[in-house]
Amino acid sequence: MESLQDFLARARAHHQAGRLADAEDAYRSALAVDPTYPSANHGLGVLQIERGLFESGLGHLRRALEGAPETGDYWQSLAEGLLLAQRAPDALEVIERAIAHGLDTRAAHELRARIVEDRPPPAPAPTDEDADALLSLFNQRHYEEAERLARRWTERAPGDAFGWKMLGAILAQSQRGSEALGVLEKSLGLDPGDAETLNSIGAVLQDLGRLEEAALHYARAAKAAPGFVAALNNLAAVMRSLGRLEESLEYCDIVLTIDPRHLKALNSRGAALREMGRLEEAIEAYRRALDIRPDYADAHSNLGNVLHALGRYEEALDAHRRALMLQPGHPEMLANLGNAYQQLGRFEEAEAAYRQACSIRSEDESLQLQAEQCHQLEVMLGSSQPEMLAILGNTYQYLGQLEVAEAAYRRASSIKNDDPSIYDGLLFTLNYHPDKSAEEIFAAYRDYERRFGAPLRASWRGHGNDRDPDRRLRLGYVSADLRAHSLRSFLEPLLA
Length: 496
What we know:
Order of helices and strands: HHHHHHHHHHHHHHHHHHHHHHHHHHH
Number of strands: 0
Strand content: under 5%
CATH superfamily of the largest domain: Tetratricopeptide repeat domain
Mean pLDDT: 84
């Protein structure tokens, strides 16, 4: 098997020989193993800049620099790429930062001089018509054109917060969160009380997993503009992600007091209630949303999940079908449909739904994913979705294909080795496998104990039971799943 260094050496050899397609394949093979590998990102970025694929190439050059900021060549390559992409101000900012951080080379100073020389003369200030055109492109999700217009705005009026705010919002919508954050913070520095900018920064921080910081920015946005329902609803969502469900519910209710027909708030309210175990109230919230907008696919899907949790599988199936009628081919909704089919014993249909969910490549048409993103997506779908693998294991187990089920569980467990529910499925499958010896099955149980039982021993509490050996024993069965367990069928005649 080739190592990262082997892939890189092969890519560079092809690149230097002008065999660009072969070089690209080798660079991508390295990135499939490690998407953060700086040398491969740098090589692929340079190659794509040479081909005129500026946005894609610049993305790789940025990732190379993020992975190895101490490498001077990466700063220079990014600045040169920006200059070739007609983004001289950005190129100048990059090379000046590099020089300030110690890249005091002749090549760096020559590049800076060339950038300064190539800069166009100042353009006239933006007009109201420019603002309308920018907003129109953004609202129509034409992000590439909108980005070009927003960048021209910041060049023409670098002290105007609006241009930076719009550029940050566009970058955020283009899944370029780290870049968006710096731009939005620049906008906020020019207009510290702008609620929309605060809300946008919160959204970027939330996408980056920095939830506490996101909550602070949403709260600042709501304070800066009382009644700003978008910020309040975002605050509800991030509170739910932080596990602060009561607070999440409170913010949902504030939004619904301002706007009783706010669909996202009703959906968020249902999600919070579901996590609190208040399932009937969650159903009511989702049904209220659907009364307002019957074609709200997310509400149908979430309603189906709550009905599933209540054991109302036929109703859940109907809800998931409605969701998929509105959003055909949605992978998560297909998986939910498969879950409902499975509970109803319709295993072939469950398997078909799961397989379709696994095979779909989630493409965001509004972003028009570049070739390298599609490639990474294919790698991901083919190898590393433990939840989907566990679902397939469940289905094959029910269908009696135990070898395939075992392989799916083991693969899922190797990817996500801290999830006992995946290993539960493996143990259940091994118990029914006709070719497994008692020793093999017991070894799997001992492995389960080593992984999940032993770490909890320190927190075991002593039993307070009576130790009298002559006492009368009282036996009981306690299980959250007893109502759907085969044991119930055996005991029911005795209790009748």
